[in-house]
Write a structure and sequence with these properties.
The structure is a single chain. The protein has about 500 residues and is α+β, with helices and mostly antiparallel strands. Helix content is about 30%, strand content about 25%. It contains 12 helices and 23 strands. The strands form 5 sheets. Strands 9, 11, 12, 13, 14, 16, 17, 18 and 19 form a 9-stranded antiparallel β-sheet that branches. It is elongated. The two termini are about 45 Å apart.
């Protein structure tokens, strides 16, 4: 049995086709062609705007021509994350899916259900001639995950819709009416390197097996950040044992909680046993602290091994000037990470957070990349001010970019009322109405289309942006039933 045998079959078959298309952010050529070809096969009007978004026009079913036009919206890209031991090229290889009880997973990589299942729901609506609905426009944006580029570049006048239903939420039974804004931070500095010291041994330090996850949705879970934990260990052994740092690298994406980090160090020959004891003690502390959230967390400290048959490049063996190493490691430790403040307006929701996403110290260049989120713009700016202070004190430059505001809830939303009533009729209970600590495109899209009445929904996904990403099978059926019922209930113009 594979995912094409699941119900609703139309949704899962379309999703299967999407998994065949390599589509990491900024490399959407294959999925874009797939979407346009699919539309042509179904005799649907479709085009690419000048920025790379795909728009599909779906005519109303007979008798529903006078209903308000609904825009079904999602994004075409996915987050490319894999386990260290998984051989997979996200630019060429399809996603390998598997069924695990009530869940669909990938094999050692992200699944791409974020937002592949949202696209599949919209496309299945368009292809189903038995549904009842008014005019529909499908808006599929590009590069959502790394910059919301497509949403920011969308021009007014291309779409005629009155209502937008975003299909990028990740909990069935919840309707989202607001989201956090975001801001990227990029830190850089240069440093002197010194030649390999005499009387030292080269060792590798690895932190891996962290759960990772979505830097917005999962930040409230307080999982271990591999960058923070490796800095914690390095700070201790550098200060206590005069260990010398050669290089450091951790994290791969701004919007994914780092799962792995790697460092190479020189250990004074006579202090090996003492350093091992210190690393073991800190590792035990970390694993105990994160036993519930990151049960697979590992700290590995072992002699450095060159690749078989290869000699070490002398340039690779030079180490960071000690004072610079101390400044950088302490700045990483001092950098805000995780939940900064919970929301007063919506209890239980994170207001402000930062993801210490990527760190790199290599061949004279130091860099840190972070993604801040907040539903309060002033709080986001205050967090940016703190980060600026931390890294400038460490002698670094910091640049902010990619900022966008959040999406403010509309308590008088007409489509929200329709969706709440429809959900009650289907399932005998009201859906939860929420705001989300993540970047949905709704707030950005409202800049070009301020009249849109917007709500976000979707099936249940867990651990997006990580290789543990999984989609709940029964929730996809419920999301399909709900979406199609809502479309039938859309009021007249």
């Amino acid at each position: 049995m594979d995912i094409r045998d699941l119900q609703p079959s139309s949704v899962w078959n379309i999703f299967y086709g999407i998994t065949r298309c390599p589509r990491p952010s900024k490399h959407e050529e294959v999925i874009r062609k797939h979407l346009l070809d699919w539309a042509a096969e179904h005799s649907l009007e479709a085009f690419c705007d000048e920025t790379g978004n795909v728009i599909v026009k779906v005519p109303a079913t007979p008798g529903y021509e006078n209903r308000k036009t609904v825009v079904l919206q999602g994004h075409m890209d996915m987050v490319p994350q894999k386990n260290a031991d998984k051989v997979h090229d996200f630019l060429t290889d399809p996603i390998e899916t598997r069924i695990d009880g009530d869940w669909v997973r990938a094999n050692g990589t992200t699944l791409g259900a974020d937002n592949g299942l949202g696209l599949a729901l919209a496309m299945a609506v368009a292809a189903d001639g038995n549904l009842k609905h008014g005019p529909i426009e499908i808006l599929i944006t590009y590069d959502e995950e790394t910059g919301m580029t497509g949403a920011k570049a969308l021009k007014g006048g291309l779409l005629k819709g009155d209502i937008l239903i975003n299909l990028d939420s990740e909990t069935e039974g919840e309707l989202y009416v607001g989201c956090a804004g975001g801001l990227d931070a990029s830190v850089s500095a240069r440093y002197r390197r010194l030649n390999e010291p005499a009387g030292h041994e080269c060792w590798s330090l690895t932190v891996k097996g962290c759960q990772g996850g979505h830097s917005g949705m999962d930040i409230i879970l307080c999982r271990a950040n591999a960058n923070r934990q490796i800095a914690r260990i390095l700070d201790r052994i550098i200060d206590k044992h005069d260990v010398k740092l050669i290089d450091l690298e951790g994290g791969t994406l701004r919007n994914a909680i780092p799962r792995e980090a790697f460092a190479t160090v020189y250990v004074p020959a006579g202090k090996t046993a003492a350093v091992l004891k210190t690393v073991s003690a800190i590792a035990a502390e970390i694993k105990s602290e994160y036993a519930a959230t990151d049960p697979g967390l590992q700290v590995i400290f072992e002699p450095y091994k060159c690749e078989e048959g290869a000699c070490c490049d002398p340039d690779e063996c030079r180490y960071v000037q000690p004072q610079a190493a101390k400044r950088f490691i302490k700045a990483i430790l001092a950098c805000p990470d995780g939940v900064e403040r919970m929301s007063d307006a919506m209890p239980g929701m994170v207001e402000t957070s930062n993801n210490l996403a990527m760190v790199k110290i290599y061949k004279g260049e130091f860099s840190v990349n972070c993604l801040m989120r907040s539903s309060v713009d002033s709080a986001k700016e205050a967090l940016a001010q703190r980060m600026k202070a931390v890294f400038e004190l460490a002698g670094c430059r910091i640049r902010f970019s990619g900022g966008y505001s959040g999406w403010a809830p509309n308590p008088d939303s007409a489509i929200l009322r329709v969706m709440k009533e429809t959900y009650c009729k289907l399932y005998g209970k009201e859906p939860k109405v929420m705001a989300i600590h993540a970047g949905l495109e709704c707030g950005i899209l409202s800049g070009a289309y301020p009249h849109w009445d917007m709500v976000s929904m979707g099936p249940t996904l867990l651990s997006p942006h990580s290789p543990d990403e999984r989609a709940n099978i029964p929730s996809v059926q419920k999301a399909w039933d709900f979406l199609t019922a809502v479309l039938e209930a859309i009021p007249e113009k």
